[in-house]
Amino acid sequence: MDVEKDFTLTYEVPSKAKKVLTDLKKTAKEAEEIVLATDPDREGEAIAWHLEELLRGKKDTRVFSRVVFHELTKEAINEAFKNPGKIDLDLVDAQQARRVLDRLVGYKLSPLLWKKVMYGLSAGRVQSVAVRLVVERERERQAFNPEEYWGVLGEFQNGSKKKIRAELSEINGKKVEIKNGGQAEEIKAGALKGTYSVISLKKSERKKNPYPPFKTSTLQQAMANIYGFNAKKTMRAAQGLFEKGYITYHRTDSLSLSPHFINTARELIKKRFGETYLPATPNLYKTKSANAQEAHEAIRPTSAHAVPSKSIGLSGDEFKTYSIIWLRSLECQMNPSIYEQTSLSIGSDEGYIFKASGSTVLFEGWLAVSKMVGVKEDEEETSSILPELVEGTKMKLLEIKNEQHFTQPPARYNDASLIKKMEEMGVGRPSTYAPTLSTIQDRKYVLRDGRYFYPNDVAYVVVDLLVEHFPEIVDYNFTALMEESLDKVAEGKVQWVPVIREFYKPFEKKILAKDKELNKRDVTNLGDSEEKCPECGRVLVFKLGKFGKFLSCSGYPDCKYAKPLEPLNGVGGEDEDFGKCDKCEDGIMVLKQGRFGKFLACSNYPKCKNTKPFLDKIGMKCPQCGEGEVVKKKSKWKEFYGCSRYPDCDWKSWKNPMVVASGNGEDSEKESGDSIDSLV
């Protein structure tokens, strides 16, 4: 990319793709016409353009046409081939603009983070905003002060056997707010004195409409909420379903459904449930997005008649994902469910009023279809069915309980809520949600506590640096506006080069200025500790270093005292003795944690810089040479297993050979494009 010449792009074929290209050229050599049928989105359009550029010879006059279909069915493919078109260069430009923009941010800003924070970090126009969301939510939680409050619950009964639990709501016309246990006990004592009866009973009808059909973000949210799938796992299953012809294209933010599918779905609903479940006219849905992903449908089954069951040939994650997609696609074309909502007030002659509510289903509507696949997608919020009562009915107070509560901090983000928040803010597009969440985890910006994200120490440092010095990169509005600009490129309304130029010129100047201005010692300071330096008495501060958080003297560089914070996992610890140092007289070898795993180092560092590799043995001889021990090793990207006699023996494996030998465990996920030799 030549930034001085209007971002002129030069493309090269990666070495790993050359064999595929050779095969394609050989196959296409004798063809009179070449039809390009890549995915129906910006990336697919760009791939088609690249293919034409690579397959067309210098004096090649053959016809290259483009067909688009959103489902791999005979009907859709035949229809697409009846109406071949040309590559949409506006979509290609939009994809190129996105790549250029993201590379300019990543390739210019990431090296600055390496120099000023820690090697190996990355910054990105979308990923950094996602990290900022996680960091700000965690800070909200840290700043949250829980407040105590109490509830007073009464248990009542009339002539029927059914008991009613109701919560104290009012005393003499005033809303109850109980802040401590003493106040709750006083109120409880007063409430026990009176006699109770039903003073109000209101019934109303409430409708609950079905949810719209799935788009990418809502499918990812539903699978996270129902099955605990992360976004990457959901998209992997959806990709398999699309390739096998079970669903339409799964990267979309459209909510429209084809008339053919709607008619088929309505016929099935009428046959299975009857006309009362079917609206008089089809339910149509519109996206709230200003510019939905180009020309897509919502995610739906290619056939409404392919009811999820063992007979359709799916299993595991794909079956679960298909079941949810099929379920939602039928539900969205059904009538609302109808509830009878009952609100009950029980009062005493002392002025104490307890309230309860309940509901009964009058008409299942769209909820009925979930029974066909055994998945409950909607949890009704009401808690109980109340017995039949009338105003004036005498009620016997059986028991009163006081319950202590505390206000809760805002919940951490999980896959579903973070994707939902990004979508609401206009950050990212259907094709970017899953890769973004994977990237911020792979880079260790965010960690997981169960299903929930929380920030690593480095996330605070990087977010604070970007917010203070590069606010445009992590500004929510800027990121959303840039997405809109890319959408306008895709629509042919603006040219991509001016959009990129307007961003890049001031950004480049700022990078150069901040490189000179920023001091690593200031950037990586995480705040003061309560400890004093044992060497000079000054305050120790938390710092972020190459291998994590540590304590450093605030008097640095005059005082170089430093102290590690986090103990090592696994064998021994930093204080375990691994023998005397063979380079100095009084040092001992201790276990340390480095960028590529554990190693042994002299305790007299930095006076003595002797180091040795640490062999993390698993208790098994090398299966190749039979002499060396199998040890855990770590590459820049991930952990693997190798022989302790390397390089004399080059045996290595991604999988634990002890597990493989015992026949337990599952194969690890295949890393596309990464061989173990390249990582080693």
Report how far apart the termini are: 30 Å
Strand order of the largest sheet: 3-4-8-7-6-9
Largest sheet: 6 strands, antiparallel, barrel
Class from helix and strand fractions:
alpha+beta
- CATH architecture identity of the largest domain: Distorted Sandwich
The level 1 CATH classification of the largest domain is Mainly Beta
Count of all domains: 6
Q: Which consecutive residue ranges, at least 5 long each, have pLDDT under 50? A: 290-294, 567-575, 661-680
Cα-atom Rg, whole angstroms? 32 Å
Contiguous helical run count = 20
CATH fold field value of the largest domain: Topoisomerase I, domain 3
Helix content: 25-40%
The CATH homologous superfamily of the largest domain is called Topoisomerase I, domain 3
Mean pLDDT: 85
Find the count of extended strands (DSSP E, 2+ residues). Answer: 22
Oligomer: single chain
Shape: globular
Region (Interaction with DNA): 122-127
Active site: 249
Region (Disordered): 660-680
GO biological process, one term: DNA topological change
Helices and strands in order:
Layout: H1 18-28, E1 33-36, H2 42-55, E2 63-66, H3 74-82, H4 89-116, H5 127-143, E3 148-157, E4 164-171, E5 174-175, H6 181-191, E6 196-208, H7 216-227, H8 231-243, H9 259-273, H10 316-331, E7 337-348, E8 352-363, H11 370-373, E9 394-406, H12 415-425, H13 433-442, E10 446-449, E11 452-455, H14 457-469, H15 471-474, H16 476-490, H17 496-517, H18 520-523, E12 525-532, E13 539-545, E14 548-553, E15 562-564, E16 589-594, E17 597-602, E18 611-613, E19 616-621, E20 629-634, E21 639-643, E22 652-653, H19 657-662, H20 676-679
Helix pairs in contact: 2-4, 4-16, 4-17, 5-13, 7-10, 7-12, 8-10
